[in-house]
Amino acid sequence: ADQDAMARAREHQDRLTKPRGALGALEDVAVRLAGAAGVCPPPMPVPAALAIFAADHGVHAQGVSPWPQEVTTQMVANFLAGGAVANAFAASAGASVTVVDVGVAADLPAAPGLRAHKIAYGTADLSAGPAMTTEQAAAALRVGVEVAGELIEAGARCLITGDMGIANTTASAALICAYTGRDAAEVTGRGTGIDDATHQHKIGIVRRALEVNRLRAADGFTPERPEDALRALAAVGGLEHAAIAGFILGAAAARVPVILDGVIAGSAALAAVALAPAVAGYCVAGHRSAEPGHAATLDHLGLRPLVDLELRLGEGTGGLLAHPIVSAAVRVMHEVATFDSAGVTEKEG
Amino acid sequence: ADQDAMARAREHQDRLTKPRGALGALEDVAVRLAGAAGVCPPPMPVPAALAIFAADHGVHAQGVSPWPQEVTTQMVANFLAGGAVANAFAASAGASVTVVDVGVAADLPAAPGLRAHKIAYGTADLSAGPAMTTEQAAAALRVGVEVAGELIEAGARCLITGDMGIANTTASAALICAYTGRDAAEVTGRGTGIDDATHQHKIGIVRRALEVNRLRAADGFTPERPEDALRALAAVGGLEHAAIAGFILGAAAARVPVILDGVIAGSAALAAVALAPAVAGYCVAGHRSAEPGHAATLDHLGLRPLVDLELRLGEGTGGLLAHPIVSAAVRVMHEVATFDSAGVTEKEG
Questions:
Q1: A7, B18, B112, B158: least CB-packed within 10 angstroms?
Q2: CB contact set of A131 (below 8 Å; sequence gap of 6+)
Q3: DSSP code per residue over A42-109
């Protein structure tokens, strides 16, 4: 991020016809986007483009989710038909919707709006060994980088992460443990709705995944080392997590801001930041999900969520909901008068 | 609010292709708007109309604000020229902006977008006696009701409250004390920026206002009695507070939702709800401001704020920022597929 552009953005905020700091966290968003773009004022983050990366998870066989695995495929069809919440929110935000198959466990018919980049028919069971090979993880990363590049090439000035994958909160919890060093019991949540017994079972699965894959500090695992960062992503991530990490890297490479959705995106961002720390400056936390691991993730990334309304849906819904807030924060930098230009007297003292 | 429409809205939410409750607080917003409109799904809250009620305050002479009183007039000009933050946010939300002079302490030149309804050249000093007569407060209430009616007549399907008035957080703090019974030290904040000494002085002014105007329980004051509710509004409110209370009453009468901005709107809503308790069901809390009295106000009103980003600007900015969230919540009810219609399998158990 460009420190000079950020300093100029702060100075500009202080000349606008409002008390200093009166826009609270929105001022930080505008400064962050100035840093990302390297100019002040930063470009308006419109149009926005949502990419929903869909994939399945071998760990589903362990009974960590009450939803049948085929719901991933069914929801892809729902996205393509325009019937999901993400579609409604995207329409509200004026964002395009692209669906990317990076690893759904079924053959999907070709459809407009669907990009076929299947790397595997779902991952292997992360609690029994690595979910992916490092080659698979790297391939999924490349898909994400490419999709980001294509959307930006097509005119997008803000990317929003989306995900679909039954059982993917289990993979997210394992990634969060690996990258932040937190305990499984602290960061493993109830996803889209499980009872106490299943929740305890899910915590045990996450713990086993970290042991089996030697991702604890006691194993010599050091997430700050890029080779360890990639190994963790492959061992306990999902294909959509890897693709989202690539999507973030691709946005940052083009100096375009990326709004992160919830805990899936957050755990993918941990991987992206472990691989390339500077990308954190291009991320905006769209919202804080109800999943307990998400707060730990945002703390680790140093990001403040813009929306905090107990959403726990994924698909990019929390990122989409934050887009108008990001957009409003930037619009202030373009359109609001200064004390001088408007002839407004400044406060005394 | 229509309990039957609310029940149908809850049932409809549960059939949509998402886990139950996965939209968190947004589900409550959609249910609330169904109750307000008396139909399910509720109408889309677009277009939105912001009304900024501007007025001055006699208590300004007590040195409770670091801003000169003429800033009220200057900011009215800024709103009319399109240069304020509220204008930028309104453009983002697609909302119209109407400025209403209910009591600015200067003659304002006629201008497109300005409604001249001046009731007085500012209020009297609330710490020395009543700020307004009950006739003045009632007249300001009527202005608010009329403006709401005219905006709805012109097509608005969501109203947003805005305010401008140097020193108006002092009046808000006094209103909050009167209607909620809280102590002045608990609810009096730093407004748009004052030092410790001025803050202590401001608390003392609020306390004196309640004493002088006999608005404490020990005085026999009972805010649940409509005549006491109106007397408190007149004694320590501002002309813009009274007009906003009327604006809320006008929205509720037309079954149109009204998004409350920050602490000024919240304290006005306390007056409106004291006068007519049912109007609470037509209010949505746009945001929680940094002012300490606002949290107490929202608690009292039973409203959960949608945006919580430490804004402390007023003008309607927090309400405008929440509008896309409200709109997205309602859009879900119109556009999202059900499990049956989309052929998505429901969760087991």
A1: B112
A2: A57, A58, A59, A123, A124, A125, A171, A234, A235, A236, A237, A238
A3: PPP--SEEEEEEEE--GGGGG---SS-THHHHHHHHHHHHT-SHHHHHHHHHT-EEEEEEEE-SS---
Q: Domain B48-328: give its CATH code.
A: 3.40.50.10210
Please answer yes or no on whether A309 and B313 come within 8 Å at the CB atom. Answer: no
Collect all residues of chain B within an 8 Å Cβ-Cβ radius of residue A72. Answer: none
Write down the pLDDT at residue A349.
61
Give the count of beta carbons closer than 10 Å to the beta carbon of residue B186. 15
> What Rg, from alpha-carbon coordinates, does chain A have?
20
ipTM here:
0.96
For residue A222, give both structure tokens.
């050091």
Split at pLDDT 50, 70, 90, the class of B349 is low
- What is the per-residue DSSP string for A217-270? GGGT--TTSHHHHHHHHHHH--HHHHHHHHHHHHHHHTT--EEE-SHHHHHHHH
For B125-146, how does the pLDDT look when each residue is reduced to its tens digit (9 = 90+)? 999 999 999 999 999 999 999 9
Domain A48-325, architecture per CATH: 3-Layer(aba) Sandwich (3.40)
With an 8 Å Cβ cutoff, are A337 and B84 in contact? yes
3-state SS of A104-123 is CCCCCCCCCCEEECCCCCCC
HEC assignment per residue over A271-283: HHHHHCHHHHHHE
In chain B, residues with a C-beta closer than 8 Å to the C-beta of A320 are 328
DSSP state of B333: H
Q: How many helices (H) and strands (E) does chain B have?
A: 14, 6
Q: Which residues of B touch A81 (CB under 8 A)?
A: 337, 342
Query: DSSP letter at B160?
Result: E
Question: Where are the CATH 3.40.50.10210 domain residues in chain B?
Answer: 48-328
Q: Which tokens belong to B54?
A: 């501007």
- Are B336 and B15 within 8 A, CB to CB? no
Q: Which stretch of DSSP H or E encloses residue A140?
A: helix A134-153
Parts of chain A belonging to CATH 3.40.50.10210: 48-325
| ω into B226 cis (within 30 of 0) | no
Q: Return the closest-CA partner of residue B267 out of B292, B246, B237, B234.
A: B237
- A59-101 per-position pLDDT tens digit: 999 999 999 999 999 999 999 999 999 999 999 999 999 999 9
Interface contact flag, B335 A91, Cβ < 8 Å: yes
The CA-CA-CA angle for residues B65, B69, B75, to 5°, reads 105
CA atoms within 13 A of residue B219's CA, in its CB half-sphere = 14
Q: Is the Cβ–Cβ distance between B170 and B64 less than 8 Å?
A: yes
